[in-house]
Amino acid sequence: MKINVIGIPVQDQDKALKFYTETLGFVEKRDIPLAEGNRWLTVVAKEEQDGPELLLEPSPTSFEPARVYQKALYDAGIPYTQFSVDNVQEEYERLSRLGVEFSMKPTEMGTTKIAVFDDTCGNKMQIVEML
């Protein structure tokens, strides 16, 4: 068994695709039309284009528990998921120059350094560096 796709809810797929590719640097992998104007929309790491895909999944407006859960995580400042980086400080500086808003600046926690940012699509995301 292996991980192929990890989904994250996004409020606007077009906005998410732009942020995740143009700002974060991921590469679009799949864009398959689905019902009701939704898409199976995935991105991958530029360095690992055959690796796991991140599904930019439409946040379900018709399923109240999912919407409440996403908002509760966001409001509490809890990251929906995390991305590994080689150097959190450098990535923090690069993303800050691009206008990304961080709710937690680079912080050492034991054997890791982390930072938390707003993905502009309804989620907090964490970048992590193993020290």
UniProtKB/TrEMBL annotation:
The keyword Oxidoreductase applies. PANTHER family: GLYOXALASE/BLEOMYCIN RESISTANCE PROTEIN/DIOXYGENASE (PTHR36437), GLYOXALASE_BLEOMYCIN RESISTANCE PROTEIN_DIOXYGENASE (PTHR36437:SF2). The keyword Transcription does not apply. PROSITE patterns: VOC. This is Catechol 2,3-dioxygenase. GO terms for molecular function: dioxygenase activity. It comes from the Bacteria. Residues 2-130 form the VOC domain. Keywords: Dioxygenase, Oxidoreductase. InterPro entries: Glyas_Bleomycin-R_OHBP_Dase, Glyas_Fos-R_dOase_dom, VOC_core. SUPFAM superfamilies: Glyoxalase/Bleomycin resistance protein/Dihydroxybiphenyl dioxygenase.
